[in-house]
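#help-structures

NK: newbie question. if I give both the sequence and a SMILES, will the prediction place the ligand too? trying with adenosine-5'-triphosphate
OV: yes, paste both and it writes out the complex. here, I ran yours:
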Amino acid sequence: MAAYEKVFDTLGLREWCDAEKEEAPMSMAQLLAQAQGEEGAAADAPILPFPSLDVLHEACAQIGQTRDLTEGLERGFLSIRNELKFVLDPLTQPLSWALDGTLYVFESAPWWIMIPILVIVSWFASRSRGVTAFVGLVLLFFAAIDHYDVAMQTMAIVFVCTGLSVLFGVPIGIGMSKSNTAQRIIIPILDLLQTLPTFVYLIPLIFLFSVTESKLYGIAIILYAIVPVIRLTDLGIRLVDKDVIEAANAFGMNAQQKLTRVELPLALPNIMAGVNQTIMMSLAMVVIASLVSAPGLGVLVLRGIRNLELGVGIVAGLGIVLLAVILDRVSKAALSRVDKQRGHH
Amino acid sequence: MTAKVAIKELYKIFGQRDKEMVQLVKDGMDKPTLLDQHGHVLGLQDISVDMQAGEITVIMGLSGSGKSTLIRHLNRLIEPTAGEILVDGQDVMKLGQADLRALRQKQMSMVFQKFALLPHRTVLQNAEMPLSVQGLDADTQERDARKWLDRVGLAGFEDRFPAQLSGGMQQRVGIARALTANTDIMLMDEAFSALDPLIRTDMQDLLLELQKELHKTIVFITHDLDEALKLADHLVILKDGAIVQQGEPQHILLNPNDPYIEDFVSDINRARVLRVRSIMEPVDRDSFDGDVDADSSLERLIAQSDGDTGLVYRVMQDGAQIGQLNMKQLVKALVPRARSDAKGASSPK
Ligand SMILES: Nc1ncnc2c1ncn2[C@@H]1O[C@H](COP(=O)(O)OP(=O)(O)OP(=O)(O)O)[C@@H](O)[C@H]1O
Ligand SMILES: [Mg+2]
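OV: that's the protein plus ligand as structure tokens.
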């Protein structure tokens, strides 16, 4: 006799419970119990099991099983899937184009054009000879060990996703800094995005988009990497010296002048710190995204795991570290250049 | 003569239901009681001040007396709870957003205690800021900014960043910025309080020198009596958000109407601050031991008399006699009334 049956009996709910009694599919626990034989199950049954859905279901068929919950969620999602797809597909299509286009450019440009361009870009961003030389060396190293193509693919994805994260993250951060209500609503969402295990992102996305579309991993990366830009833009603007804001008001600036001439420039060091973190996080996510067909170094890491090709996996992993280091150095050098320019030493 | 800036029965109460609290304050509730019983902070109560064109009005009071709150009402950085603020006869409270910005751009500029310069802009760009906000052309901006930077002694520093300058120099940029705005009215909130004493004296001299030339209407805030007496044409003394006394500084010094002010003035070097004009008497004799200028300080007269208290001087202004000064009278004026009272009270015992 299942636990809690008495409870339903004394409450006089027995009839209601048995009203639509049909053979519900057995739960895993029941199956196991059956396999072990009746007596064993009775002996093993705890004296007072927690009245969970499954336990109550045994006593009263009207109460659903936990499986119904997850199934319901799945069914709910599937039932709105087409509508969601109808809205999201065209909205996110540009992301696919951006990713495919950039990947095409990074892959098809010959190395003797791409490497100099990247070196020049890092010079203009960092203005540091050491950093620039280091970037050049790392790129040549990738080429030397035949990892140039995959490294470029990874870099292309990181660039696109970081760029879009900044494009959307900064305005969201500005909005958050201007309204406490917006901040109260957005912060839990950011917390959620940051703490969800990265694989969990992929689950609903796989249902929505086909795995062959690049926007699938693009969205996953951006959702994960956009968080620091938003947070630090909001923080940066809120931390702007109140005295300077007051001066801006006292000299008659309007809201837009205040934003572009005072708040954003003063928040810039914080925003750039956010961009730096965003770059690092998209790099981390790009590896996981190779599970859903994102090209690049992550694919090699995955191959290393799947086929137990130790060397391939380790080299690709170290390659990712090197990429992370150069991206980090260049963006940090850019940040400290901004700081220095203002005469802080 | 109508005042350039007139504040009329201004009240400021910080809190959610400030409008309801005004009546309580008008009925005589004081600051601690209001805070205790209603959780509202009394910022300002019943402030009425007329600020004349071309004068320096100094608002003085201890920390927390509401000075900053008061000056921020003039350009409506803070909204009053009740009362009127008239600038050139125009009620600032009736201005819409656009008109208010125009007032802040064209009629009032401000200098801040912590300088509040834009750290990512050069000295020149900081000085240009008020004009660039108004959207003037780049040439005008640069010409005016350079002119005023030059005037405050910062020629050659145009391309530095604020963080590369000393505090005194940063505040010169702050003053140049306010002057570039070319407004009639200048608001200065403890503009020199963050500077060390020597630099501070320099800056005061600079301000007086500029004022002689420009005749702005200046509202200057300080908690320092020496500074107040040096700069003020009109002195307003605040305590707990209310005016305790206002008027001509020399007059307040000689006739403090409140123990709070007596405390304030008792530590001052009166010989340096008081002018002959303020303590002279009507003429009642023909022979004098010498002449003295009406605006000369008592200190100078003491030096001139060599400390002889028996002398009587003729007080002159623009070549004409306007009064006389007995050295005995001078010595009496040097002792603050609070102290002389204290002595008188304790001696009979
Ligand atoms: N936003 C506010 N909310 C509540 N109370 C305030 C607010 N701003 C100022 N006050 C209170 O108003 C009073 C006057 O403050 P104010 O800053 O004007 O003083 P102050 O004379 O400028 O002092 P200081 O010399 O320290 O600058 C203080 O008691 C302060 O606590
Ligand atoms: Mg203050």
